[in-house]
Amino acid sequence: MTSTPEAPRLRAISRPLAAAPPLVDLADAGNPLLWTRGDRGCVGIGETLRLTFSGPDRFAEASDAWRAIGANAEVDDPVRMPGSGLVALGAFAFDDHSGEQSVLIVPRILVARHRDQWWITETVDLASEPASNADPADPELPAARPRGEWAGVEFAAAEGSIDAYIAGVREATRRIDAGGIEKIVLARQVRGEVPAGSDLRFPLERLADRYLDCWTFAVDGLIGASPETLVRSTSGAVSARVLAGTRARHADRPQRDAQARDELLTSTKEQHEHAFAVQSVVTALSPHVRDLRTSEEPFPLRLPNVWHLATDLGATLHEQSSAIELVGALHPTAAVAGTPKSVSIAQIAELEPFDRGLYSGAVGWIDAAGDGEWVIALRCGRLGAADPDTGARPFVATAGGGIVAGSDPEHELGETVSKLRPITEAFAR
């Protein structure tokens, strides 16, 4: 079900910039809209259009709605870079029956960077904007906003939730041993509270500075830094990165850290889990692409908190599929659901005592041509609505791992602790 209106008439005007302040500095302190990695990314300021979707057809409905909006838009774009012209940022829920809505947001102002090129885009709705303000002009660069307060967030697991997670891993392993399913991904949550008036640019800056190989994002209250590219599609070229198989880092003990990396590379269990994830992506992408190629062997991806087994994929589109359509074809991968997909999703619904919402869904951007870049929403948390009396906002962080035959519950719990660390450290005082 969708709340998308009939395709509005939008006008998007992009202009090059000589430079701009750091993207995080331009973000709204309380409701940031951000997508950044190193010397690439964008920040949105204000909203011109918000589209919401839900249910099993959310990707198809979003793709159709966005295609109609793009066809009806006036775009003045001499920049002609990925992410210039008309752009929406979005986040999609994990489950077909989630109570969380999926969303596409067209910012009023978008400031973007690709290496040494900067640009600004202003997008207006011609039906509601006064004609004098909608005429083409050079959009004005907003000033960086002064930093506010950051008191930090203390996270805690709900009483009994750790024991429940361990019991869930044991039950998942029992079901796998019984046959009919090879992998189930189970997650758990920790909760905290963001005080009223907190400047969320502090944790975003920490994530962006520390997790250089990840996309740091903030979309509709979903905040995190994901290492896993679900799909990037630009000018017919398609790429993805698959992560499955994890070991905690020991950055202060180089010898132990190297041992953890080698254990990951030689673990039959982790290689088996990784193969599931890669095959699920290959199977989903194959109908849409040609010349599909992958890394010869999984390689170790080093992040500040963990080692991951990683495989990169590349291909060429052989049909006019938008980035959102590709996301819909790929989601959910075995890395966040399991194998077989339909059976594992049903098992997750039984064994996880919460709605994942946007966690392990997709977050990213799309432009008027249908190009875009989307990651799996991992290493992240979700802001809730402010308390009417105190103004404080609940914040829930989620992390999980793949359960296969032989999984050890205590090891799986430790893996979730490592995967939660990016958020718990970024949101600390």
Task: Describe, in plain words, how this protein is organized in 3D.
By secondary structure, the chain is α+β, with helices and mostly antiparallel strands. The protein has one domain: 4-Layer Sandwich (Anthranilate synthase), CATH 3.60.120. It is built from ten helices and 20 strands. The chain has a 20-stranded mixed beta sheet that branches. The longest helix has 18 residues, at 161-178. It is globular.
Map the helices and strands.
Blueprint: E1 10-17, H1 23-26, E2 33-37, E3 40-53, H2 58-72, E4 74-76, E5 87-92, E6 102-114, E7 117-125, H3 131-134, H4 161-178, E8 183-194, H5 201-210, E9 215-219, E10 222-226, E11 229-234, E12 237-248, H6 254-266, H7 268-285, E13 289-294, E14 299-302, E15 306-317, H8 323-330, E16 338-339, H9 341-351, E17 362-367, E18 372-376, E19 380-383, E20 393-403, H10 409-426
Parallel strand pairs: 1-4
Antiparallel strand pairs: 1-7, 2-3, 2-9, 3-6, 5-6, 5-17, 6-7, 8-16, 8-20, 9-10, 10-19, 11-12, 11-18, 12-15, 13-15, 14-15, 17-18, 19-20
Helix pairs in contact: 2-8, 4-10, 5-10
